[in-house]
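Lecture notes, structural biology module. Today: joint structure prediction for complexes of two components.
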Amino acid sequence: MPVRHNIDVMHVEKNISDAILSLLMQSVKSKDGLKARLDLEDMGIRSNLHTQVRGKRKYLPPAAYWLSKIEKKKICKRLAEFRGPDGYCANIGNCVSVDPPAIGGLKSHDHHVLLQNLLHVALRGTLPRGPRIAVNRMCNFFNRLCQRVIDPEKLISLEAEVVETLCQLERFFPPSMFDIMFHLPVHLAREARLGGPVHFRWMYPFERYSTF
Amino acid sequence: MRHPVDSATWAQVNDQWPEFAADPRNLRLGLSTDGMNPFAMQNMKYSTWPVFLVNYNLPPTLCMKAENIMLSLLIPGPSAPSNIIDVYLQPLIDDLKDLWNEGLQVYDSLSKENFIVRAMLLWTISDYPGLGTLAGCKVKGKQACNVCGKDTPFRWLKFSRKNVYMGNRKRLRPGHPYRRKKGWFDNSVEEGFARRIQTGSEIFETLKDFRNDFGRPLEKKTKRKRSNLVDNEEISQEECEEDSDKWRWKKLSILFELPYWKVANLRL
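The predicted structure, tokenised, for the full assembly:
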């Protein structure tokens, strides 16, 4: 069999969305921090982000993917006010607080909807151009991958594009974010080409079946 | 493409086994497994592994509906079966083998006749750790990617204390401008290429004489004695070399007992 074990799109999507959101909102689960900056120093790249010692404390210079508090509030307000059609998704507003701006407690389907349709709208006009385009391209990749009807020829170009997208993410985001879940999208388009649309090969129906 | 019937996998099956594809009533199944807690209590540590089969002969609107998912096995807890899941899967695989080789005589109520139904397993669906247990390969560490295997581009981060997988630039087309951007990435010009993905038969070749060890210690392991270490040293050295093809495998998956599992004539 060409694809023996399917990589589950649902979990990949959820983990990627989780990592990106926590990084943007600078929550406790954020992959950016003192250790990530020390790693940058260790690798000898991006000297503008290295830790600086100011007096007794270590200071982390602001990075391109950091949002100001006003921007965070803007994003959270957009998400909190989102109202979808009946049966479209859970009420995402429940998971978002505007003051203080925080996003937490999303279920995997919320992540799915967020990454497919909402995040790139919510981010509009906030991040600097580079990181924003990288995140948007990632959203776009998953949106095109998860279509009910896919064109096998377009999947080939999708496969090439996602590599470029990952390179862009690599350029702006800290290396500690790139766990295995950021590697797997490379293979997703290939598996879709060999095995058909993803909604026949993901875990949603089975997870739904095994809950009460 | 709107159904696996349009996919390359389906076409390959039709090519390879025309007599199987001739009867549209022959089943093509997908296997899914996942850990769940039957008591629905977050603080209770208990993990049951249901094994589902899903039938891909149905139209897209019915295919993944809950009423068409078959619960074929229930692996009891209290802990996840992990690597020894093969022992539990044995009866299911035996049935699948029978269904493939001989088939089963069943009654077709539409045309009011008996016929022989055959079935094959197309693929498995599971989350990433579950994929590791089904395939018997590593899903973390240096060769975490089950597709890339030895070519997984890992890098150890000293301070975050974990492996990350970043080398995506070598998958770009040759001459892509990103390959030359030193400062954007890790101060190097990328000239490498990603190697071809291992096919099922190649994996089977490396694993052919793998000794499966499904014993599970009843008690928690005490510290191994030195004498045991000496005995096992020769074997362990041979199997623990990171460069060898075998390093990332923990078992020869029982799914390879299915005669069609390792066959793949597509170079993709």
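Point to remember: Residues 9-210 of chain A form one domain.
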